[in-house]
Amino acid sequence: MMTNNLICDLFKIEKPIIQAGMIWCSGWELASAVSNAGGLGLIGSGSMYPDVLRMQIKKCKAATNKPFGVNVPLLYPNIEEHIKIIIEEGVKIVFTSAGNPKTFTSYLKQHGIIVVHVVSAVKFAIKCQDAGVDAIVAEGFEAGGHNGREETTTMVLIPQIKKAVTLPLIAAGGIATGSQMAAAFCLGADAVQVGSRFVASPESSAHQNFKNAVLEAKEGDTQLTLKQLTPVRLIKNKFFNLINDAEKRGASSEELAELLGRARAKKGMFEGDLNEGELEIGQVSAMINSEKPAAQIVEEIYEEFKATINGLKNIDV
Fold first, then answer.
1. Average pLDDT of 44-57?
2. Residue 231 has pLDDT above 90, yes or no
3. Is residue 272 a contact partner of residue 207, using CB atoms and an 8 Å limit?
4. Where would I find the H helices in 229-293?
5. Does residue 243 share a domain with residue 158?
6. Average pLDDT value for residue range 112-132
7. What is the pLDDT, as a whole number, of residue 316?
């Protein structure tokens, strides 16, 4: 275990690397693989019916004896059922996102669960501290999936939140390498949350077509869109162009919601429809060009992180 690290101590993990709970991409196979490698794996419950979530938790418990958690988007329609299952199955770590941290934090903590909330701005970090969460994920504009309207980058967001709150801080958004992890630590982070890099792994539940699209993505191939509804970073494709054109001509929120329809994310990321599907991924996808096992990703990030930090100690200033 990394010594004197707030996040490793909090979660009882060896390496301060958290795998993001990504819808359609992070089931029990990915979560258990990351946890077995010494990080913290998260099951992404936002794409799961309650019975599927229960099955995923049971399979994860069978696959690892290390700590793991569940990511719960608070806007999920079956949220109460998800919370009930998490408690019944004895999950000890919950990451909440996309909602008010006060909603379930105290209830979860009453059941002995460590609660972490994901934020994209300082004002939300302060609300998290007031709500009594145990740690915060500060996610910059570079991140994939749903994102902040403020478009604050990770390099700006982390030091701002570090100054505003005293909670352990996990940096997210644009982190896929050890040197990027080291940069986050220099800014004040106690750990990093990595999403996009783990999509391109055999254990990821993403469709191979989507994995290949991530590997082929170049600089500028992703963009934040749907800011009138819930901002989301997507790979540019036919569906993205449809939404982008509608926004340019001033489409209403109702029209955009109708265009979005149902199950667009499932269609793209899980079923592999690269034209009509929603392809959520971070800017750092431009740096990802090979599919690797999750354990290898954890090890490579951590070893490069240590080498980078040790290299900084040798700089003569």
1. 95
2. no
3. yes
4. 238-248, 253-260, 264-265
5. no
6. 96
7. 79
Same domain for 153 and 234? no
Q: How many residues does the chain have?
A: 317
Look at residue 1 in the predicted model and tell me its pLDDT. 65
Query: Do residues 176 and 222 both lie within one domain?
Result: no
314: in domain: no
Give me the residue label for tokens 């994901």: 118
Q: Which two tokens stand for residue 247?
A: 């926004």
Better-scored residue on pLDDT, 75 or 206? 206
Tell me the pTM.
0.95
With tokens 């990770």, the residue in question is 154
Query: How sure is the predictor about 16, in pLDDT bands with cuts at 50, 70 and 90?
Result: very high
Distance of alpha carbon 255 from alpha carbon 191, whole angstroms: 40
Q: Mapping DSSP to helix (H, G, I), strand (E, B) and coil, where does residue 23 land? A: coil
Provide the 8-state DSSP code for 40.
B
Burial of 103 (0-12, 13-18, 19+ CB in 10 A): middle
Integer Cα distance of 277 and 294 in angstroms: 25
Nearest to 294 by CA among 208, 202, 217: 202
For residue 72, what are the β-bridge partners?
96
280 phi and psi, to 5 degrees?
-85, 120
Nearest in space to 137 (alpha carbons), one of 72, 223, 78, 80: 72
Query: What's the rounded Cα separation, in Å, for the pair 237 and 276?
Result: 8
State which residues form the domain around 244. Answer: 213-284
Q: What is the DSSP letter of 186?
A: H
Residues 126, 256: one domain?
Answer: no
Q: What is the pLDDT of residues 165-211, one digit of tens each?
A: 999 999 999 999 999 999 999 999 999 999 999 999 999 999 999 99
pLDDT score recorded for residue 149 = 81
Torsion of CA 291, 177, 32, 39, to 10 degrees: 160
- The pair of structure tokens assigned to 100 is 């008010």
Residue 42 DSSP class: E
The pLDDT confidence band at residue 38, using thresholds 50, 70 and 90, is: very high
Angle ∠(138,195,81) on CA atoms, nearest 5: 80
